[in-house]
Queue: 2 jobs
Job 1
Amino acid sequence: MASSEVDQKFLGKAAKAVEHENPLLASVLYKILGLSINLSHQLVKAKKQRRPDGTPTSAQLDLSFHIIWLSREGLVLLEQYVVPMVGAYTELKVLAYKLRASFYHIFVLFHNTPPVSSMGVNTPDPQNTPQSRLDKGKGVATDDGSAPSSAKPSRNFEGGPVGPPPGFGPESPSAFLLKPGDYLPIAHQYFKEAAELADKILWGSHSLRLSVKTEYAAFLYECVHDFEGSRKLAKETVAQVYDATEGIDNDMFNDACELVTVLGKMMKRGLNSSNKNPASSTGSQPPARTEKGEPSAPPGMI
């Protein structure tokens, strides 16, 4: 995500490289770097606090609010000050596109309507909200204050409870931070743009390119629920790494090795459960909980 160590390394390098020629851009990049480091700690904490039943505690709500706020502030800085200035840079342009997709990835995980992940702060279901006010357990209170009647109604009404009109239902608890909505399509579009740009201007073993593809594969699996597409992307990316002939320094080599290892696990992610339940391989429903030995989510990627 926007909190991955590879992204943070490139943020620091980019900020230092442009300090003299563009101090404003450098200062914003340093701010995003600090925000990213903070965000990485919050995301790890959120993953550890996730409950099996998906019911958030007050502490989890506060943590989710903090994550959404950090992501929102990072996106504002990125879109207003970084994206318009990266035309003349190569790696920084890819990084900016990737970070934009990453921030929207977090919105999808924690703030999407309808929810696509158990990490999110879910909006209450209007059909489950009380339709009538109860008067201290004595029955349904009437508008004129008269006593409730114990007689059954003489008419039978068909149909279920009527929910509020569109736009008047209960809002997400985090609506005060960010406008509720379905962020999945725009996040997917930004991941496609970042991946296409990385393929165009970075070589196959470049660690920033691998960071883009690793999070994109995680997004396909966890949010889009395109399990086969996620595994295919991971497999193709690993193959392109082995086909690359360009030289890389030791630091980038170590990062590339780590990301290739993660991608190798993602190539097999969900296959154990899909063998038992063929429907899951089509993306029609999320896979069951893993058995022992199935890989976990990539580092920094919920």
Job 2
Amino acid sequence: MGSEREDFNLTGPLHLTTIDWKNVDHRRSIAASLVQGVYMLERDRQEKRQEAQALAPSWWKFFHFKLISQLLDDADSSIFGAIFEFNPSSSNCIQGMDESPCYVIAFRGTITKGDALSRDLQLDLHFLQNGLHRTSRFEIAMRAVRNLVAAVGNSTIWLAGHSLGSAMAMLAGKHMAKIGVVLEAFLFNPPFFSPPIERIKDKKVKHGIRIASSLITAGLAVAVKSSHHNNRAENPFVALSAWMPSLFVNPADHICSEYIGYFEHRKKMEEIGAGGIERLATQHSLGGLFMSAIGKQSEEPLHLIPSANLLINSTPSRDFKEAHGIHQWWRPDLHLDVKRYKY
């Protein structure tokens, strides 16, 4: 048997006996539960739990979803993602059906147990090196997203992921948005790789560092653009602005908390009349600009996104494990500060 945290009947959102798809809390809880279902698919595989012993199915069947495909890593055959289809047998306990997804593609994060750990850590390292887009796991994920979009046409598709899985979902969402396909995305604890400025307690010092960084980044961006005579008609960053992924972050989780400062700083720069500088700076990273300056190609950092719904969990966390965990996102007593940022 698995731990209590793996058992839906012990730790799942059992309070959702009636589902209202227009309720943002219900949508968030269900998306998080499907991501947990992917975690449990891999844990069931590791523990060789099958049929009646398997713990994964309850995480999607409770919400009238069925599993139609598992995404396997080609290096170790671990399950890192899944495609779910919404298939309600009855609408008696379901409201707002027109707001429900037809399909959800969900990705798990790093698993610290079993034989998937080594491969997951490799993927974490690729993320830190801004190379997640070059991995075979992402190629498999991207192929699944493209194939589903091609197969079901205008049907509503959601992307969902946690931690490393949210990085996968964000990268897939950005790729699709650049070709005009906007998919709703639920990104739980999305990693933001940068110096931990948000952890600085002194607000003046923190704001000063961010302003200095913006000035340097914007200045270098202008210099690099001039030297390369870049005349592209369309800015790919601006092209992404119609995509509004939902980012679920916890201030006590240093892996994702920098998103809070990233978006707040943009707003403050607008307020002090430096919005133009920040709109340029926020499209670039110093590392990427340096690579461009020496003539090398560099993929834009994953965390650079123009628009987002930022949902901050203001409920106190006991420790980092709880602040970074997926379980927090379906708590019925969750307190969220919701902010919308449009580029």
